[in-house]
Amino acid sequence: MKIADFKGIFSKAYLEVESVENPFKDFYLIKLKLPNGYTWSAGEHVNISFPDRKYMGRKWKTFSIASIDKEGYMLIATRTGEEASRYKSHLIDLRPGERVGVRGPFGSFKIADTSSPSVLVASGVGITPMRALIKAMAEDSNREINLVFAASDYYLFADEIEAMTVENSNIKLFKTSNRADTLEKVADLAAEYGNKAYYYMSGSNSMINSTEDVLNNKEISKKRIVKDPFIGY
Ligand SMILES: Cc1cc2nc3c(=O)[nH]c(=O)nc-3n(C[C@H](O)[C@H](O)[C@H](O)COP(=O)(O)OP(=O)(O)OC[C@H]3O[C@@H](n4cnc5c(N)ncnc54)[C@H](O)[C@@H]3O)c2cc1C
Hints:
Elements (H helix, E strand, L loop, with lengths): L11 E13 L2 E7 L11 E5 L10 E5 L8 E7 L6 H7 L6 E8 L11 E6 L3 H14 L4 E6 L7 H10 L3 E6 L2 H15 L4 E6 L1 H13 L7 E5 L4
Helix pairs in contact: 4-5
The structure holds flavin-adenine dinucleotide.
Flavin-adenine dinucleotide binds next to strand 4, strand 5 and helix 1.
């Protein structure tokens, strides 16, 4: 198949499950094998369905892609909450070799330019597209990358991102565990970079709204703000 066969809202591919991992409590990582020529831009998302399973309820849900295509696999991350929904029960029960339907990739959460410093603000599982953005930015540029990562119990991908900060001094990780500290760090970074930086936000709507209020107070232009609200939480 040609790359063009996979592009656009209506294109659907069938990807094989490589593994499902459970790194902590109700966090899950699903790794999918890529067909030849399957590409996407860092930050995009896909809709995932289970063509070989029959059940009542929602047949597909949206997930950000946590990997970049150069890694050679599609990585999806999720959290089920205390009781997994019917959809997520199937997602985390997938077996290696089983296929999933993948519609997309699509979305406007993308790297805005090739050189501006960046301030990334993620909450919880909103870290997923940020992993891809950091990998793509670090690979393609020498820009400064600041990640403010808010989580209450577990920082998904933090070990990997911490290792990247050791290798590349342009990358900085600020872990926070409450809203006040998160917003204070965002305010400090906005004061430091002003409208020289792009500000990327991913997570729940409430987190995005309060972060945006801080940026507005610091007179950051709306053109410098890139958002990925995780509708559904
Ligand atoms: C652009 C976009 C990207 C997205 N990317 C991701 C992604 O990368 N990973 C991802 O997991 N989701 C992502 N989502 C949200 C995803 O599509 C689902 O809506 C969401 O995961 C909830 O699915 P569910 O089956 O648990 O939903 P529901 O059946 O609605 O869940 C039932 C309830 O369980 C509780 N619950 C479920 N999950 C959690 C949780 N993590 N923490 C606390 N309570 C919870 C909530 O009360 C929820 O309402 C994205 C959505 C959009 C629009």
